[in-house]
Amino acid sequence: MHNSPDLITGPDGLARTPWAYGTDLLTEYYDTEWGMPIYEESGLFERLCLESFQAGLSWSTILNKREAFRRAFLGFDVDAVAQMTPQDVKRLLLDASIIRNEKKIQAAITNARATVELRSQEGLSELIWSFRPETTPEPMSLSEVPSSSAESKALARELKSRGFAFVGPTSMYALMEAIGMVDTHLMGSHRRGCSGLWPR
After folding, report:
1. What is the pLDDT of residue 199?
2. Known catalytic residues?
3. Is the dihedral of CA 129, 133, 136, 142 positive or negative?
4. Which residues have a Cβ under 8 Å from the Cβ of 142 and sit 6 or more positions away?
5. Sequence-distant (≥ 6) Cβ neighbours of residue 124 within 8 angstroms
6. What domains can be seen in the chain, in order of their start residue?
């Protein structure tokens, strides 16, 4: 299959999607992490939170603040975040190193509590991965990369029904991309097929 015309070949000779060149941090994230499968609860909870905070902002902004988010939310330890109090929310609203949005901060705590509740059922990982589609996009151009799907809409609905907040179809599709449930690397990217779940 032909390569995407939107690919950019870096100085290292590797072809990547344009957004991967925004900063060194973005390039490293694209090359090592984005699109790799994540199954453990804490890893999925972190990405669920980060996608929620990203709503309306650039991913670069979130990535630059990722270590600050990890400090603020206790390493995204689900049990610890679930125990956070209104006083913790007030403290975090004064923390300039993160995104100071009260609804998003509260959503992280709400989602931690919902994740704990899921443990007596199928658990966060099994729930999220049950929405893996049968096929993945094969985008030849950036315009062909979806922003949502039937599965991401269904996942968002299901999570909301289980008590989760700030989990819309677009942010859930971004989550699916981030954890390799779908592969939206442009055709010809050196990372296409990196998850091992989909053919190159």
Report:
1. 83
2. 29, 51, 59
3. negative
4. 6, 17, 18, 186
5. 41, 44, 45, 115, 118
6. 39-178 (1.10.340.30)
The answer to whether 2 is annotated as binding is no
Largest Cα span, the chain: 55
**What is the rounded CA–CA span in Å between residue 53 and residue 200?**
31
DSSP lists the bridge partners of residue 15 as 9
113 and 152 Cβ atoms separated by less than 8 Å: no
| Length in residues, the chain | 200
3-state SS, the chain, equals CCCCCCCEECCCCCEECHHHHCCHHHHHHHHHCCCCCCCCHHHHHHHHHHHHHHCCCCHHHHHHCHHHHHHHCHHHCHHHHHCCCHHHHHHHCCCCCCCCCHHHHHHHHHHHHHHHHHCCCCCHHHHHHCCCCCCCCCCCCHHHCCCCCHHHHHHHHHHHHCCCCCCCHHHHHHHHHHCCCCCCCCCCCCCCCCCCCCCC
pLDDT digits (tens, 9 = 90+) for 22-36: 899 999 999 999 999
Q: Extract the residue ranges of the chain whose pLDDT is less than 50.
A: none
